[in-house]
Amino acid sequence: MTANLTPIATFDFLPVLSQAATAYRRQRNTRPIAEILVDALLQAEKSAKQQHLTYPFESLLGKWQLCFATGTKKVREHGGIVLGKGLYVPKFIRIHVSFNAILEGDSDKGEICNQVEFGPMLLKLRGPVQYTGKKNLLAFDFNQMVINLFGRDVYNRPIRSGKVQTEDFYNQSIAQLPFFSFFLVTEDFIAARGRAGGLAFWIRET
């Protein structure tokens, strides 16, 4: 079932996520507390699984600002992983991710740029992505780093953290790569679970 970016049904989690996105963008103090936002994200993930929702790669294209994220921690008694409390990204740090298609109409290949802006410094990581629409999995691998200081690039080189060369990347199994599993995609915000188990919530850059 391919999801409509304007959900027909209204679930309990949608008003919470919409409130969080609006309040964060407008810098208001009406943001839902972290525990409520985590619960809303988990409800959204559960709903997506129950409805077998799928999203096309085109719906992810654009630039998104990271609003909220959770970490994970190991539980010694059971050897499992549980979510951390989560927190809103401080406004003095701007973290963005952008997705671009390599070729117009290509449904599963593209590029990612993850950037962190802190004062006069801007760090960018770029690399290829491959998308599996049936599972909403977006695998990626960073292979280029750019450091910009006071509006000028001071470092722009390939990095060795990339597991494979770009030309071989698309032949790799997604299971061997870092990835995001998207469970909610709207015109205004997106949400995903990372390979390590944490949740992330982005709002569209306006």
Overview of this protein structure:
- The protein has 206 residues and is α+β, with helices and mostly antiparallel strands.
- It contains three helices and 13 strands.
- It is globular and about 45 Å long.
- The two termini are 29 Å apart.
- The mean pLDDT is 87.
What's the structural blueprint in terms of helices and strands?
Blueprint: H1 13-25, H2 34-51, E1 62-69, E2 72-75, E3 80-83, E4 87-88, E5 93-101, E6 109-118, E7 121-132, E8 137-140, E9 144-149, E10 152-158, H3 166-169, E11 179-185, E12 189-194, E13 199-204
Antiparallel strand pairs: 1-4, 1-5, 1-13, 2-3, 5-6, 6-7, 7-8, 7-9, 8-11, 9-10, 11-12, 12-13
The total of helices stands at: 3
Q: Number of DSSP strands?
A: 13
Poorly predicted runs of 5 or more residues: none
The level 1 CATH classification is Mainly Beta
Question: What is the helix/strand order?
Answer: HHEEEEEEEEEEHEEE
Q: Which structural class matches the secondary elements?
A: alpha+beta
Overall tally of structural domains = 1
Strand order within the widest beta sheet: 1-5-6-7-8-11-12-13
| Largest sheet report | 8 strands, antiparallel, barrel
Distance between the termini: 29 Å
CATH topology: Lipocalin
In helices, the fraction of residues equals 10-25%
CATH architecture: Beta Barrel
Instruction: Give the mean pLDDT.
Output: 87
| Cα radius of gyration in angstroms | 17 Å
Strand content: 35-45%
Choose one word for the global shape: globular
